[in-house]
User: Fold Ketimine reductase mu-crystallin from Sagittarius serpentarius.
Amino acid sequence: FLGVMPAYSAADDALTTKLVTFYEHKKDSSVPSHQATVLLFDPRNGSLKAVLDGSVITAKRTAAVSAIATKLLMPAFAEVLCILGAGIQAYSHYDTFTELFTFKEVRIWNRTKEKAVKFANSVNGPVQVCSSAQEAVTGADVIVTVTMATTPILFGDWVKPGAHINAVGASRPDWRELDDELMKNSVLFVDSREAALTESGDVILSGAEIFAELGEVVKGTKPALPEKTTVFKSLGMAVEDTVAAKFVYDSWSAGN
Assistant:
């Protein structure tokens, strides 16, 4: 797939588009499944101001949005973080979450165990490599799913009541990471209702009802409900790339 994600933010005085290629590699590949480039334009005249590494921006802004959701929705005493998947998003989520939150234990599971072991050996803190997704998830307070799964790998009867799940993978209408039980018995938050109802197989195929967009919680028009089991379905929004690209460009321009 080749995706084009244009956005304009008047508040940030920023105009961008992200070009992203997405290839499902049947065999393990040294080339990432997602590759991206962000073009930053001058909103006054349309001139191209910068070309930025969209893969880095995508990884960091996605983890940042998950972190906002987690800050608002996770249980009051969250001690165990579980990451399902060991790709680029797993690394960015680990870095962001361990910087912003204090977890006593971090667990990881990946379909290919060698990648999970490599992940655990690469990051700065202690990570427990689990032999099954169920082992990784059992008792976890915060769960991050960043996989290439097309059928569910996370099941509701494994999940601790009151846990918070960031569902980041499965960005196609016929792909799943979470089963029906988890989707229907959790309070569902999304980044965009419109996107979730057309792009997310987890939402479409389960028929789960969307409670709120994350922006509504940030603005205070919808409650966060951290005492409930919560799912944040992340699909990504072009404006996130716009804000991130402008932030990088302004920092670079200022000589930082």
The domain at 58-237 is CATH 3.40.50.720 (Rossmann fold). The radius of gyration is 18 Å. The chain has a mean pLDDT of 96. The chain has two domains: 2-56+239-255, 58-237.
